[in-house]
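Changelog-linked ticket: zinc ion example.
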Amino acid sequence: MKAAAVGSPGEVEWIELDEPIPGAGEVLLRPLACGICTTDVKLVRAGYRGDPCYVLGHELVGEVVVAGEGAKWQVGDRIVAAPYIPCGACHTCRHGQPTLCPHLFENSLDPGGLAERVRIPRPLAERGLFPLPDGLPIEVAALAEPVGCCIQAIETCGVSAGDAVLIVGDGPMGLINAAVVKVWGAYPVIVAGLIPHRLAAAKKHYADAVVNVAETDLSSFVAGLTAGRGADVVIVAVSSTQAVENGLRALRAGGVLNVFAGVPEGTTLPLDLRRMHYEQLHLTGSFGVGPTHMARALRLLANGQVNGAPLVTGRFPFERTPEAVAYAAEQVGLKAVVIFE
Ligand SMILES: [Zn+2]
Ligand SMILES: [Zn+2]
């Protein structure tokens, strides 16, 4: 079977793999839709040194085509898959921190979502697959993983109704964070970014206010909307130190800042410890998604509390996966989704 893998730097490489055979309790999926994530873009940019074998895609919607002995799913079931599954029994799992589980990646999509067939290992098949809700388009259902990541971030920040929330970043994850934090009752939700068409989409569908940081000073803009206090919560969905610094300047005393975007190894931040102490700032980070976040994300998408459709601006057939990755990398629109036959 064909799979889209990380190739030499900047390239998606097609590789040929044996079709996986599902064992007891496992299922084999035929993908229906798979979102392209910033993680995929970063992996492709970095390239694979050695044999190309890392298969892209982890935002998967699929149909069961083979159900192993004793599997809880049947052939024909249409499901949304979590990318990986925490063990549920370790120290961090028992502290409600599923993505710190040391076993997180032991059971994941095999070989990845952007392949003709995907094997789902037993623990993932048992706890990390969710029925595709009736009437939810597959391309919108493919947003369950990114929406789930935002739910985890927003829970980590302890957002309450009426909180002023600043999202730094106008990419798909910035807009999804804005959409989700609205469900938590935040007001105003402010999206800061640099790309006019993305800011326009944010304003039209998700945010109460948007600000182009190339033209306007962020902290004074936020101060103007919060009686001079600054944001109660800042979520930084841009991979840079400067974005975090800008976010910190717009954070109120006692506020919470979340480093949401992944950054390259060695990325550091000069921190004003005196301010941190006297202003009682909270710095947090969040990564990934647990099964409860996935389940909640699907409900929000299915019942319309999160309007996912405007986020999907690029649709590509499987054969054009490299173009889908380029579409995401070049920030042409918002989210690119690969749609299978
Ligand atoms: Zn993702
Ligand atoms: Zn665990």
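Closing comment: Example verified and attached. The chain has two domains: 2-143+308-339, 150-285. Residues 37, 39, 58-59, 145-146 surround zinc ion (ligand 1) (CB under 6 Å).
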